[in-house]
Design brief:
The chain is of the alpha+beta class and 493 residues long. The chain contains eleven helices and 21 strands. The strands form four sheets. Strands 4, 5, 6, 7, 8, 9 and 21 form a seven-stranded antiparallel beta sheet that branches. Strands 1, 2, 14, 15, 18 and 19 form a six-stranded antiparallel beta sheet that branches. Strands 11-12-13-16-17-20 form a six-stranded mixed beta sheet, sandwiched between helices.
Length: 493
Amino acid sequence: MRAGRLGVGLSLLALLGACGGGGGGGSRTSGTVTAPPTSAAPAPAPAPSPTPAPTPTATTAGCSVRERQDWVAAQINEWYLFPDLLATGLNPAAYATVDAYIDALTANARTLNRDRYFTYLTSIAEESAYYASGATAGFGVRFGFSGDRLFVIEAFEGGPALAAGVDRGAEIVGVGTTSANVRSVAAILASEGETGLGTALGPSTEGTVRVLRVQDATGTREVSITKRIFDLTPVSSRYGTRILDDGGRRVGYLNLRTFISTADQALRNAFQQFRDAGVTNLVIDFRYNGGGLVSTAELLSDLLGGARTASNIQSITAFRPSKSAQNETRYYRAQPQSVAPMRIAFIGSGGTASASELVINATLPYLRANSALIGTNTYGKPVGQIALDRPACDDRLRVVAFASQNADGQGGYYNGLASVMESSCQASDDISFPLGDPREASVRTALDFLAGRSCTRIAVGTQGPQAARSTTARRLFSPTRPTAAQRETPGLF
């Protein structure tokens, strides 16, 4: 960003984001990251909308492809966490889109597993809608692969799929625009791959109609579903907060889908329930949580930190040396609803990323072996992005700009958290049972850990996004270019 670029609104927001083909993130409300001065006051962001603003064209002042490429290059060169890894000597004209140019600039870091498409361009309007309320348009389900079979692994309250009776455990065996042209998922994958399947499922726009051939416990049927706008509830009203009975021991269970601002009060309510019940053992289910707002992650850590003091470090944020003035140490802040757990079982998977990993990593210096990862290895994203806004073009550039560490200085878990956890237990994601059900394999294993029963440690090897196609490492389905909601809620359609 440069002084003198009139009409460029600048917003600098520190954030952590998701996995799966993109980055994602949200604003950091605790602590301040100061933006460099500009010669014009920042323009206001567009009003929240669940769909992006119209794509800028060459007729929009300052918004030609080349002008946008020049703008993103300037921001990346100034703020990128790994400046020595940026490609040099690139000709922007050789790249047809801004996205392709960004990918080329950051290719070296991607090769070294430091930036797996975490630096990207997105829509201000689209992200504002998602982070404010979870607003998105779609079927309202989360898809995952077991091998090459497509399953619904979660269905969201308020979404059209759940209203049509499509829930966790259902297999999608065919897709079409009408009953007359339904094609099998196997045929689509065989001829067009996952990109073709994403296309067949249609865009994330209100009014898109698809006929899904669904196979579940009731048999096989075809369901016509019209995508519509709905607000994704970060803590499910069905299973988001529960008190589980494990042989007479009361255990608090929390399933957090995503870190957005509407989660804050739901988290406070959940921990008040845990506090009132006197639970000292918790299961925190992050198995599909791709990240989101740092402020919400910090609140959740505070709620888990009833035994911490104001002098205990929660996390350390470190920028590149030239931006070290932005570094911050975040200390625990007691909340009225905070609890002091003796043991915590975090359920994770290859879809568990960023803000979720931040919360888990923050517990390690204090709980050590009493904090465990249950399930499979996590994604591995110990870095976060800042957001740089250019409202005239509805452009929000997410730039990997800082690394996160815990109180022991532990970060750098680019291959997932399994290698740094003192305790871990391998478990499958058993979609034949509802989330939060004590019979479900990951919840059962979490309860075993809390009770001191033995388990098999998670093997450390390939990190989350490249995990084997198996029943123990379910692979979330994400499009090549995910929306803001899909970055933070991996598998969302």
